[in-house]
Amino acid sequence: MKRIKDLLAKTSRASSELRVGLTEARERIDALKAQREEIGHIPPTMSVVRRRVDAFAELVVERSTGMYPSPEHFLAGGDYQQPNYFAMEDVLGRYLKRTLAASIMEEVESAVEEMELISEEEREARVAKIDSDILSAELAEEALIRAAEEAGFPVERRLDADPRAVLAPATSLP
C-alpha cells in the first residue's frame, strides 16, 4: 500500500510540474505575440509620415468636385461677377493644400516628440526576431507536450499552435 501511495504522490507531482511547465511556456508565447503586436503600433519615421500627409493633401484635391472659381474667373474683364457657386471644401483643398499639409505635420511633430519611431527595415528585423523566438518557444512547448504524452499524460494543444511546431520531427525539438 505504501508503494501505491508513493506512486500516486509522484504522479501528482509530475502532473503539477507539467501544468506549471505548460503554463510558463504558453505565457512566454503569449508575451512574445504581444510584443510582436506592439511593434506594429510603433509609428514610422517622419519621412514616411510626411509622404502620408502629402498623399492625404493630394487626395483632398483629387476628390474635389471642381466647384471652385478658377484663376481665369478672376481675370474676367468688365463682365466680372462674384462667384456664387463653390464648395468650401473644394476651395480649401485647392488653395490651402500646402497649408493643410504643413498644419497636419506641425501637429504630428508635436505629438511625436516623446515617441519611438521605427523604419520599415527595423520593424521587419524586430518582427523576424520575435517570430523566431515564438517558434522556438512553440517548439519547446511541443517537446513538453510530447514528453507528457509519452509518459501517459494527455495534453491538449492550443488551437493556435504553430503547425511547424506540432508537425516538427522529434530531432527538431529541444
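the 2nd protein, sequnce then structure:
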Amino acid sequence: MLISRADPLLIEWADDSWTIHHVRAETSYRVSRDVLRFLECVGDGIDTDDLRKELDADQDVIDEQVRHLLALGLAQKDPADPGESESDVVMRSLGTTAKHFHTATRDANFLIADSADSVAYLKKVSGEGRPSFTKEYPQAPLLPLPRVFAPLDVNL
C-alpha cells in the first residue's frame, strides 16, 4: 500500500515535547520523536514495504503505525495507489492545497457575460457609486478618545 504524509502539517517544539498541528483538520497531537521519524520517512509517498526496510522494523509494527496515523489523519493513502480516480492522480502533481482549492470552489456561482444573472448584477451595481470609507452618525454623541504617545526612548 502507498501512503503519504497529510498536508499541511506544522511541527512545533514546546513545553519539552513535539506537537503536530494538522492545519486543515484543526487538530493537534503530542508525538514522540519516533513518530516524527516515521512521518519523515513517509514523506510525499512511500510503499509500506519500502518503509519497513527504511525503518528496519517488523511489518506488523509498520502496519499498526500506518493504521493509527491514517485514523488520526496525519497520513493518507497515496492518490497514486491503484483504485484511486484519474483526477486524483492528476491533482497529485499540483499538490493537496491545489486539490483542496479546486474542490472547494467547484460549485462557485461564476457569472457568464451574457447570462441573465450577469445583466441583473451589472444593473444593480452600475447605478450606485463607491461607498464612503467612513460612515457618520450626526445624531450620535461624539466621544473623543485620548491619544497616548509611544515613548521615544525605547530600545528595539
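The mean pLDDT is 80. The domain at 2-95 is CATH 3.90.930 (Outer Surface Protein A; domain 3).
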